[in-house]
Design a protein that fits this description.
The protein is an all-alpha fold. The protein has 18 helices and no strands. Helices cover 72% and strands 0% of the residues. The radius of gyration is 22 Å and the shape is globular.
Length: 433
């Protein structure tokens, strides 16, 4: 029954999105982050439901091409384009071509939708629509995991949607940490008292879900996010007291293995998992030294390559770090582009915050830039211990950073384009200029 209901809902949504590219982008994000079909048990579970959403989105974008957000080359978009070009071009020189074909295909699909985001989202309404979709899609697992943790006393790990990027406990915990600032932002924008309370309840349940994930990388990320939110808060004493009480409650509520898990962060030399990660990082470094320009390419983290490059060839692990994943697979050039992309996006949030700080009519942009900045911190810290360098979420959030700047701080040409009195011909001339 669940399969048929989801099939009908998805079909109707896609029909509705044929003339509405923003809806198509939202459906793609919903399917990608929440993966509702993976929660079914029948025919729809393994159907390629994402591909129709991609097709509908681009069809709708083609129909509405004249109304697209004009492309602008900025430092962020230039480095983003160079980074994507490096990902794709570097796949031609991969040590393991068969594995590379699969990964580069997935990368191209993700980055095409990020490109579509730049064109489709045109105003504050579109930006906030995407924030709602992303936050609710991933937040579903925070609500579910938080309730599960409370009901079971934290005895079992919280997991993400099976068969997806976010299936593992570490992966879903990092995603939940990234969206926490988005929930905070949405709670500041809505006016309904009960909606605000629901969003704050979701925030708390996501926190509990991260605790119940037993992900040490996520614990460090959550500490960084809470510190960032506390630093930006006007009620530092109250906020600090609240965080302290929450931490004490977590240690008091969770079973002993939670305390052991947290203690292992400091005692990493005695933890086998931590030593395996360090071995994987040493492997990535050695690959990059041997292939400094382009690295080993997609799929290099495998048993055969570990025999050649790892300090301990028998401890085969995933990259367990976005930085070492890029270094091992894309070389020093790829890592430089990746870090430059992250730095420029972060500086763009700073630019938006500075320009909108004293503008009441642009308070939404200030708050959103602050939230996206905290999300970036979560990804930077949590990603240091998790191999999710190609996850679509951070790239799409960077697109929203750029678009927030475009909408809140438009240039002269964009101001002219927004005037309702312009004819279609005048709009075309402005875009071509």
């Amino acid at each position: 029954m669940r399969d048929y209901a989801l099939f009908v809902v998805l079909g109707l949504a896609l029909l509705f999105a044929v003339a509405r590219p923003l809806w198509g982008l939202g459906i793609w994000s919903w399917l990608g982050y929440m993966s509702p079909h993976r929660l079914a048990y029948g025919f729809i579970r393994d159907l390629p439901v994402v591909q129709p959403a991609v097709a509908v989105t681009f069809i709708a974008l083609a129909f509405n091409w004249k109304d697209r957000m004009p492309w602008r080359w900025t430092p962020v978009t230039i480095v983003w384009a160079l980074l994507v070009a490096w990902y794709v071009g570097n796949a031609l020189f991969a040590m393991y071509p068969e594995a590379s074909v699969v990964e580069v295909d997935r990368t191209i699909k993700i980055q095409l939708m990020v490109l579509a985001t730049f064109f489709i989202v045109r105003d504050r309404r579109g930006i906030e629509f995407m924030v709602w979709v992303i936050a609710m899609s991933i937040g579903f697992y925070g609500f579910k995991g938080g309730v599960f943790t409370l009901a079971t006393g934290g005895k079992y790990m919280v997991w993400g949607p099976p068969g997806t990027f976010l299936e593992g406990n570490n992966e879903v915990a990092l995603a939940l940490t990234i969206i926490l600032p988005l929930l905070w932002y949405l709670s500041r924008q809505v006016e309904g008292k009960w909606v605000k309370r629901a969003l704050m309840a979701g925030f708390v349940l996501c926190l509990i879900s991260v605790v119940g994930s037993y992900s040490r990388g996520a614990y460090l990320a959550i500490a960084a996010v809470l510190a960032a939110i506390w630093w930006r808060s006007n009620r530092k004493v109250f906020g600090g007291l609240l965080v302290t009480i929450a931490a004490m409650a977590a240690f008091g509520f969770m079973p002993e293995k939670f305390t052991v898990r947290v203690d292992s962060i400091a005692n990493y030399t005695e933890d086998a998992s931590a030593q395996g990660r360090i071995n994987a990082w040493g492997f990535a470094w050695n690959v990059a030294l041997d292939q400094p320009i382009n690295g080993g390419g997609y799929g290099v983290f495998n048993r055969e390559a570990f025999q050649r490059y790892a300090p301990d060839p028998e401890k085969v692990h995933d990259a367990h770090s976005i930085y070492f994943e890029i270094l091992g697979e894309q070389g020093f050039v790829g890592l430089a582009l990746f870090l430059a992309f992250a730095f420029l996006a972060f500086m763009e949030t700073q630019r938006i915050r500075k320009a909108t700080r004293d503008s009441p009519d642009k308070a939404w942009a200030f708050d959103l830039a602050t939230a996206l900045q905290a999300s970036a911190i979560a990804y930077a810290v949590g990603g240091a211990f998790l191999g999710l360098a190609y996850l679509d979420l951070p790239y799409q959030l960077v697109a929203l950073v750029v678009l927030t700047g475009r909408v809140a701080l438009p240039d002269a040409k964009e101001v002219e384009l927004s005037k309702p009195a312009l004819t279609a011909a005048e709009r075309r001339r402005l875009r071509a200029a």
